[in-house]
Each structure stands twice: as C-alpha cells, then as structure tokens.
Amino acid sequence: MKLFYCHIIALLLIALMACKPKEPMLSVHSGTADFSKFVAIGDGHTAGYMDDALSIHGQQNALGTLLQMQLQLAGANPTILPWLDPSNVGINTQQQARLILGYKTDCMGIQGLSPIRFSAQGEVVSFTQSAYIPNQKYSNYGIPGLKMIDMVSNLIGNPNDQKYNPYFGRMSMDQFVLPMTGTWSSVQENVLFGGYPTFSSIYLGLEDLLPYAKSGATQNPMTPVSGLPNVGFDESINQLLSQLSSNNAKGVIATLPDVTKFPYFTTIPYNGLKLDAASVVTLNQIYGPLGFAFHVGENPFMIEDPSAGMFGVRPMLPGELILLSVPLDSIKCHQMGSVFPLRDEFVLTLDEIQQVQSRTTAFNQIIRAKANEVGFAVVETSPFYEKTNAGFVYNGASLSAKFVSGGVFSLDGIHLNPRGNALLTNEFLKAINVKFKSNLPMLNALNYNSVLFP
Amino acid sequence: MKGRNLILVAFMFFCIGVELTHSYGQGFQVNFQGQKQQGMGCAGASLVQDASALFYNPGGASFLNASEVNAAVTPIFGNVMFVDSFTNKSFRTNSPVGTPFNLYALFKVKKYHRLKYGLSITTPFGSTVQYEDNWIGRFALTRLELKAIQFQPTVSLRITDNIGVGGGLVFTTGAVNLQKDLPIQFYDGSFGHAEISGKAIGWGYNVGLHFKANEKLNASFSYRSRTNMKVTSGNVQFTVPESLNQSFPDGNLTSGIPLPSVATFGISFKPAKRWDIVLDVNRVGWKAYDTLSFDYALNSPSLLDTKSVRNYKNIFAFRFGAQCNVLSLHEEKKMMLRAGLGYGFSPVQAGYVTPETPDGNRVYFTSGMTVYVSSHFNLDLSFYFTKVTRSDRNLETLLSGTFTTIALAPGFGLNYSW
Q1: Residue of chain A whose Cα is closest to the Cα of B79
Q2: Rounded to the nearest 5 degrees, what angle is found at the Cα of A167, between the Cα atoms of A163 and A173?
Q3: Residue A351 exposed, middle or buried by CB count within 10 Å (0-12, 13-18, 19+)
C-alpha cells in the first residue's frame, strides 16, 4: 500500500512538471506567389556589403540571404552564393579589409573608439579566383556597386574595361561562356541563364545616386531618368521587369530612401567648429574682410563654394552636410574647415542635396509605376529609414540611424549592419505578405549582430 | 481503500482543470495563506477554521476556541510561454518552483478567553520568473525575483458573542533582483547584461471585523493596508565591453515597489450540517503601482534614471467554494473535502503587459481536503490550477505577442491545537 502511494505521488509530481502551454501549430504558405526559383538582384545591400567591404559574414547576413531564408519556409530554393573567404577579412574595390570598431590615437594623442581596418589588406585572393561553378545557379545576384542601368551592360564583367566590377567578375559565367560567344555576358544574362526565376526581389537604384553624393557632387554623375537600357533609368528598369515578369512570374521591388540621410552624410554637424577666444581672433582677422564673423563656441565650418562670391568661400548653412570621408585629423589639428575651407568633395550643399533628392523621387515614381504594371509588390523603404532616423524601440532595444551607437548602420555609414538588414528584410516580407497573401513570419532583428565593441 | 479514493478525487479535479483549459494571484500577489481557504477557491475569510484567520480576518481569530500553531507550504509549478506575434517564435520560462509558505501561532489568554493574540509569517507577494536564454524579450527582462516576507503580530478581541475585532502591525522585509540583457555586443557577439538587486523593508497594518449572525451565517470585513517597499541600498552591475565601462558605471540605486492594499468582504453559510459555502470578494488597490523607477547614484549619458510606467488599476476578485464533511453528520469524526473556483480581474491594462507579470484576467480552480488525525492535530492538502492567456503590445518595449501561463500549486499544511 505504501508503495502504491509513492507511485501516485511520483506520478502527480511528474504531471505537475510536465504541464506546459502548448506551442501553436502554424503552417507558412506562399499565397499566390511561387518562391520555388527565387533570385535576389541588387547592389551591396542585397549582397551583404557592410563595414565598407564584402565579407562572408556580411554575405550570410545580407538582405538577399535573410529574405531567401524566410521564403524557404514557404518553398524557396536553396541559398547559393559566391561565398567569400572563410577568414572573414573581407574586401572592397580598393583591396581593403572590412572595418571594425577599435582603438585609434588621433592627432592630439587621444585614444578613442574609431572604425579601423580589420587587417592591413583585404582578402585579395577572392578577386583573383572565379567562384563560378557550371550548372549551379546563384540565388543571389547582389553585386556591390551595381546600378540599375548596369543590368544589361556587357562591360562590367570585362576585366580589361574600366567599368569592370570584380564582385561580378568572380561570379560571372564568362570564363566558360566567353570562348563560345565571344562577348562578355551581362548580369541579366547570368540571372536568366538556365531558367527564369519564379520570384525575384530587386533593390537597385541606390548606386545610380550614391557615387555622385559620396563624391560631394563633384564627379560620378547620377543616372539620367530617361534613356535606353544601359543609359537611362526608365528603359533599364522597364526591360528588366518585363523579363523577370514573363511567364507571369512575380517579385518584389523596393523604392529608394533619401541617401543624404544616411549617417555617412549626417554624423558631422555643419556647425561643429568649436572655437576658443584665440581662434576667434585669428579667424576674424582672416575672414573679417569677407564679411564673416566668428564667436566663441560652435560655428559653421568654412567651405569652398565656387558660386560664393569672389573668393569662393563661405560658412556652411543649416541643412548642409559634411561627408564621413573628411579627414578628421585635419579638422582637429590642421585647421581644416576653418583657416582652410573644406574642399567641395567633402560637402553637400543645399543645392546638391536637392538634386539628389529630386532624382530619388523621380526614380521612385518610375519604380512604383513599373512594379504596378507587372504586378510586383513594392517595398516603400522611406518610412523604414525615416523611422530609423527618428529612432525607435524594438523588442525592448532602442535603435536609431546614429553612427556606431545606433545599432542599425554598419561602420561605413551607408550600408546596414546585419541587424539593419534583418529589419529591412521584414519590410520586404510585409510587402510580400500583403501583395501575395502569404503569411511569412518576420525575423527577430536582435538575433543579428550590430556593431561589435572591444 | 478510502485513502485511495480521495487521491483519485483529487486527481480528478486536476484533470478537470486541465480539460477546462483555462498563476496564483493577480499582479505579483500570491493568494496562498491558508490550506483550507485554498481548497475552497481561496475564499473563506469569514469561516474561521484555523489560525490562518490571523491573516485572512484578524477579527475572526478570536472566535477560535483553542491555541493553535499552523504551518503550510504551497509549491508553485508555473510555466509561461510567450509567442511573438511577428516572428511566430515561442519562448518559455524555466522558473524555479515557487515556495510560498505561512506560519501561524495563535494563543488564547488564560483568564480572558475573549482575547487572542498571535503572530503570522506569510508571503502574500512575490514572483520569480526566469526566461529561457536568448528569448526575444531579453532586452526587457531575463529574470525577476521578487520576495517579500510579512511578519504580523496580532491581537483579536471578541467584543460580544457575535462580534470580533482584531488588528495587527505588518512588517515586511523583501528582496528584489532584476536582470536583463543590453543590446550592446562584445567582439564575440555576446550581449551585455544588467543586474539590479536590492533589499527593501516596509510597514503596514491588517485590521478586521467579524460578525456571526447565527449558527449558519457569518460575515467578515478585513483590510490589509498598502505597504511601500523602499529599496534604499540597491545596487546595479553592468557587464559591458571594456570600451563602454565608463558609460555604464556600476553603483548604488534607489527604488521602490508598492504592495497594494487588499480589502476583503467574506460571507459563509451553512446550508446543511455537513456543508459550508463561502464567498469572498477582494478589492485590491493595484493603482498604487503606477511607475517602476530606478534612480542611479552614478549617471552617464548612456545611463539615465529610468521611469517605467506600469499604470496598474484597482481590481476585484471573486472567490467561491464549498466544503463537506464526508465522514459523519456529527462533529466527532471529521474529514473535509473541498472544491472552489475564482475569477480575478487583471490589474495590468492593455499596453502595459510586461514579461515580469504576464498577467491577464483569470479563472482558477481549486480542491482540497483536511484529515483530522486527532482532536489536536489535523493535516491539510490543497490543489490549485489556472491557465491565463494574455495578448498585448507593450507600449514601452513594443514587445508584442501572447503570454500563456499554466500554474499548478499543490499545498500541504499541518495544524496543532490545544
């Protein structure tokens, strides 16, 4: 009898421990879309370019990779990328390694946190070896630097051309196809070779604007709104989408955010020139004759502006931007931005910002119109980037577009970090769910790395 | 054979509870202060059966005819699951077993039997929640441990044959430990961590009035006051990358948590000789818990004092139960079987549900029994079951999803009277 009770008590205790809420059963479906042959097309965002280089860790956390991972819950094909070296050193077109956050001593001898290169040189081996494997189709044609107008270019895969893009070169099928055809293949030919995708994601157009903005509007003109494929934005996107939507294939395409709001352009304040009494005296002596006065405290930086009077120099105006490419040590120790005005290439003036913004608006109108024509879902990226600029709370964590500490942008100030890519991926997933009545779950962006601190 | 049947009955209640698919108190209240009440839906403030009246109704304690000591413990097996509404991922708690307990000692004054005095040691507030590693709400909370022990010396006087009054001073000593991860990453990708800990004390009182209308009908009113628990020498410890040490200085902090007032109206009725029916209505002053603030002694641009809005509201809880002497019509042989249920409104308003108290309106079921081993000694068993589901989107953390809590609490108590 005693033994009997012992058993009963033991059973009861087990029952108590085991009484847990049951997990809900949920099946993910693709709605009216067919993800079985998915391809991601885009620039560095889609490829996983971040911290000013492409690396394997970036590829693993790329917009295209994360999006495909969720689409795989509803039948998408396996992820095949031209993976970079497992060393995770990374490489950019200047052969540099990726940036990390480390300690750096500035010109005044003060040690502080700063983006520094992971190593002296990038993983150059990745640009010297082809990653192409015959009969294998990449699911991600994210190519850093790729413009909308480049999709049909027969030059960016040609190592002898100045338009050559080494990221494309290493994944292009040319080494096998070229001997037969005699011409270099375009990105689009690579995408469509061996079967059209049933679903594509497109995030292209930023590189049609960014090189101009990053040069301080001094070179790399923006892509014209109109023109033939390979020249103008409208005809280029037109032919791309008509190809990708043939056979009633579906897809998702993103509009473009205002790139001038990226931390690359917004981190250094226009009035960050902090002056003491002695400097004020000196500067007033220099610039007094031009009618510019300085005071103790914060002052606008002095910049070159050819349209500003006889000397082409003036103080910055509120709303004007200094680029992260500016040599900070020269500002701190060598009077750049004060005695020596900031050169044009480090500054976007109000006019230049306006040019970039209105071109972005024009591109977006075309993207929306063409997407509607072919029945693609449209991801409006601007609300996401605006929310990030304002700062927001996500599952208990505060995130913002702030450089380094914001947690969304990588150390190049232009590309998102893995966490930012996951957040942007969620915007793609939402647009797909709405348009095609699928029920793809979102990603928990906090599972993806942000800036790593020493 | 009878013993076996009883266990089967208890087990049946357990199964019924599970089938009905629907913690143990609202907010971080723990309503386990008497095994006999726990058997009857946690009601019975007006049915004086043992020394737990010191807590439930100080006015009723004087109606007990003997001196008595009472000890009981109620292990709580609580499991919480959170299903995130955006990712559809589910996460669980692996909280340790909670062990609310109570000790009562009630003595009669030899020459003046109308007067009783006693001491109660109870744990009417507390909570320990530990979420699984890397859960989606880790930046809101990873672990909360809230402990409070109340000491209540009490005097109870039977003014007339029908009316008793009583009161006691309540001294509360408590400890809090709150932990969460910080969205700051080391080189290896691991996250920073913050741990707040502190001890607190507070003072309050418990008064009651008992009215015996006749042999069949009793009523009671009791009021336990609010207690402000002040954390005066708390401590915060950060685990962050070395380069951020200066931004997150370890140091002292002050804080405070209110334990709400509880007003209880109870009625008990004897419809037949073997039977008692009890009904309690609680009004809990949760409105007191409007903000959880931490005032750090050392601030930095990254570490500012925090004020986290809780915005709780006052609530009602309705508790109902019955007991039956299954052995005999008369009092010489007794064995009580009990059952009850209750409904409690949640003090947590929409937009304010946090992982620390994933609370919702709740139905709960209880059962229990008392074996009278001798005229001096009896042994109590009770069982409690609830399932609570609450969906919310927290306004502060924007954590959005559904918490489901299943709590089971088997209780065990001993009484000795003389």
Answers
A1: A20
A2: 90
A3: exposed
List, for residues B2-23, the tens digit of each pLDDT value.
344 333 333 333 333 332 223 4
Mean of pLDDT over chain A: 93
A16, A399, A447: residue with CB nearest B410: A16
Q: Give the domain range for residue A230.
A: 38-265+350-447
- Which of B87, B140, B243 has the CB atom closest to A443's CB atom? B87
* Residue A80 resides in a domain: yes
B206-243 pLDDT, tens digit per residue, is 999 999 999 999 999 999 999 999 998 899 999 999 99
In whole angstroms, give the CA distance from residue B358 to residue B23: 10
Chain B segment 138-157 residues within 8 A of A by beta carbon are 138-140
Domain boundary among A348, A376, A392: A348
Q: What is the mean pLDDT of residues B33-58?
A: 96
Interface probe, candidates B24, B87, B133, B138, chain A, greatest A C-beta count within 10 A: B87
Of A8, A396, A451, the CB nearest to B140: A396
Identify the pLDDT of residue B16.
Answer: 32
Query: How far apart, in whole angstroms, are the C-alpha atoms of residue B179 and residue A431?
Result: 36
* CB atoms B180 and A441 under 8 Å: no
Q: Are strands A250-254 and A377-379 parallel, antiparallel or unpaired?
A: parallel
Residue of A nearest to B393 (CA): A395
Same-domain pairing of A378 and A239:
yes
DSSP output for B350-370 = TT--BTTB----EEEEEEEEE
pLDDT of residue B91: 96
B374 CB within 8 Å of a chain A CB: no
Other Cβ atoms less than 10 A from the Cβ of B101: the count is 17
List beta partners, residue B385: B365, B408
HSE of B76, CA atoms in CB hemisphere, 13 A = 27
What structural domains does chain B harbor? 2-417 (2.40.160.60)
**pTM over the 0.95 mark:** no
Residues of B in contact with A442 (CB under 8 A): 86-87
**Which of 293-332 (B) contact A at CB < 8 A?**
none
Same domain? For A299 and A387 the reply is: no
**B185 closest CB neighbour out of A443, A444, A450:** A450
